[in-house]
Amino acid sequence: MSTITKKSLSVIAGAVFAAVLPSANLLAQDPSPLKIFTAVEVEFGTQSGKVYQLQGSSNLVEWVNIGAPVFGVGRDITQVFSTRSGGEVTFGSYRLEQVAAPTNGLAPWSLAGATLSLDDTPGDDLMQFTDATRGVDLGDDPDPFAYVFTRVDADTVRTDIDYGDGKKDVLTLTFTAPTRGTWVREEYRKERLKDRDLGVFSVVSNTVPNVNPNPGTPPPPPVDPGTTNSPAEPLTGLAGVIYQFQSGEHPDRLEFKDATTGLEIGDDVDDDEPNTFTYTYAVTGTNTATIVVTFKPGRHDDYELSFSSGGRGTFVRREFRNGTVKDTDNGAFSTVTGPSTPGGNGGDDDDDGDDDNGGNTGGNGGNTGGNTNPGTAPAGPSLEGIVYRMVTGEDPDVLTFTNATAGVETGDDDPSSFTYTFTNTGTSTARLVVRFKPDRWDEYDLTFVGANGGTFVRREYDDNELKDTDSGTFVKP
Q1: Is 310 found in the same domain as 239?
Q2: Is the dihedral of CA 203, 204, 205, 206 positive or negative?
Q3: Residues in Cβ contact with 359 at an 8 Å cutoff, skipping those fewer than 6 apart
Q4: How sure is the predictor about 25, in pLDDT bands with cuts at 50, 70 and 90?
């Protein structure tokens, strides 16, 4: 936490306005009144490797965050907040909280000295950032530019590029590995948005800026974007792989936990919690493959992948709801380096009003296509003393096994007693049958991915008939 002096942090509240009074006829024709509102403008200096959060207080005891955290990149930052809504930014005192930036991010703190390839084929469509503020778009007719660099979050950076003469681009880079990822470019001409496109990028120079901002720390060795996977060759399996799909402003991320199950993160901006799925994967050509991702009966996404190199390429995705194609989009994909995203309960990410599958356990992730480290199922047949929290939506079911053959289920309904059988079907898999009465029972196929939980598929029977099938994750509370 740092105390900001008046010299380093200036807060200006007020409004500057001027108006030319129109004639009486114009006033009669346009009855809309002129409205002027005040604002708070904040300016503060930053250091690379620090994160800053503006806060306000009315009593110097309770402090409220204002706006989003700012990643410092060594230049002054100016922010303007409207006071129209009242208390949100109108305080008697302000301060700036300063903390060290997270160290697990992939995004660099500068692009100075880096050359990017914004094409499926490394070496094509090159953009060179010669220093911290200038660069050149390479090609048959090189086009120099000035730019402003911003680190948006741990894995994302933004460059506001000015070629001059009213030609400006906003290039957003999302790193999925230290030297590659996906990009979105918005092209403006004379302040008007003319085009928006996207793709995959790779860093092709050996002067990648140091990702670790700590002074004196040597930069990490450069990573060749083509060494992760063989060029243009699909993997034979996806267990342990993470793919990021960029088809709009907010990328989607699929984490394949094993040969048949996985987690989806970031389906849209309002749903950033994982959704569990089952999937099938097939290699269809020398550089093509398909993935069918099923979230629940009647809801699945079909991906057609075309690989270019280094685990990157383009895709076409068709989203099915109740057997009907609801949307088709395309974009670029890339493998992601690093551990999988921590799990969380699932949310509703479509328009059907139902809570979709969720998870609360993370698994081991990677980008080599190897196997994850599976868990070991209990020896069985008794689960006495064990409690499992079964998550498929907002209201999880909790199974408490009170003895070797019976237990109690609690959740959104009243507690229900049951008898059960538990059978090992493999080192990390098991079958659990929970019977509430002779004609009503649930069958669970469990896959253990850690010491305390994993994923499941559940079939619910009532009146001796299959009524529902869903999937999710389970964990010991």
Answers
A1: yes
A2: positive
A3: 263, 274, 275, 276, 343, 344, 345, 346, 391, 455, 472, 473
A4: low
Model confidence pLDDT, tens digit, residues 378-407: 888 888 888 888 876 556 788 999 888 999
Per DSSP, the residues of 131-156 read: SSSEEEE-SSS-EEEEEEEEE-SSSE
For residue 425, give its domain range.
Answer: 387-475
**110 belongs to a structural domain:** no
Q: Which two structure tokens, joined as six digits, stand for 52?
A: 């800053």
- Please check whether residues 462 and 423 belong to one and the same domain: yes
Tell me the per-residue pLDDT of 403-419, one tens digit each, with 9 for 90 and over.
889 999 887 667 889 99
Is the separation of the CB atoms in 247 and 317 below 8 Å? yes
Same-domain pairing of 94 and 121: no
Residue 84 pLDDT > 60, yes or no?
A: yes
- What value does the mean pLDDT take over residues 73-81? 87
Q: In whole angstroms, how large is the CA radius of gyration of the chain?
A: 27
In a domain, 382, yes or no: no
Do 233 and 366 sit in the same domain of this protein?
Answer: yes
pTM: 0.48
